[in-house]
Amino acid sequence: MDTSSWVFGYGSLIWRADFPWLERQPATLSGWARRFWQGSHDHRGIPDAPGRVVTLVRALHETCAGMAYRVESHVFDHLDEREKNGYERVPVSLKLAGGEDVDGVVYVAPIDNFAFLGDAPLEEMARHIQGSAGPSGKNVDYLLELAAALRDMGAEDPHVFALEAAVRVERRP
After folding, report:
1. What percentage of residues in the chain have a pLDDT greater than 70?
2. Per-residue pLDDT tens for 14-63?
3. CATH code assigned at 31
4. Where in the sequence is the domain holding 32, given as residue range(s)?
5. What is the enclosing helix (H) or strand (E) of 89?
6. What is the DSSP letter of 116?
7. Is residue 120 helix, strand or coil?
8. Model confidence at 1, in pLDDT bands (50, 70, 90)?
9. Angle between helices 158-171 and 122-131 (to 10 degrees)
């Protein structure tokens, strides 16, 4: 009996899979959009100064590109701990790169969670990201790694790429 499940990564799970997986494939998730609207008190910020990381928001006509991992059930113990800062598991249908539709789960930080920061002007989010850091490193590195990983996959994400451009403007002397 196969006890494995698919989990969809759309943020650092794309490039930093610190868990054992059975299979890994690029995938898409329809009806959702990636946004830097979640606070990070435990990875890219600290309790008194959270960084900004991604969550998903419902977006009827959008598709979010990411990485799907087929994992054994015990891996969720680790993922639940890693994604504890306001995220919850949501069942979804994923489309794998080969065209196969599979059932899976994704970690989403809903708008009513304690760490939700919400939307803000692009320049304000860029300054926030530029100035934040936590135990997992600088918040700006998270953004730049995500943008690079998406490009490596051939994925488009106007929100991420616009924030990346705004951060690069902020970094100019």
Report:
1. 97
2. 999 999 999 999 999 999 999 999 999 999 999 999 999 999 999 999 99
3. 3.10.490.10
4. 4-171
5. strand 88-96
6. B
7. coil
8. low
9. 60
What is the DSSP code string of 20-61? --SEEEEEEEEEEEEEEEEEESSSSSBTTB-EEEEEEEEEEE
Return the exposure string of 113-145: e unless at least 16 CB atoms fall within 10 Å of the residue's CB, then b: eebebeeeeeeebbebbbebbbebebbbebbbb
Task: Point out the residues that are catalytic.
Answer: 83
Lookup: tokens for 49:
């100064």
pTM over 0.90: yes
59's tokens: 């977006």
> Tell me, what's the pLDDT at 57?
97
Burial (CB count <10 Å: 0-12, 13-18, 19+), residue 46 = middle
By the 8 A CB rule, do 138 and 39 touch?
no
Domain count, the chain: 1
| Six token digits for residue 63 | 């598709």
91-105 pLDDT, tens digit per residue, is 999 999 999 999 999
Q: Number of H helices and number of E strands within the chain?
A: 4, 7
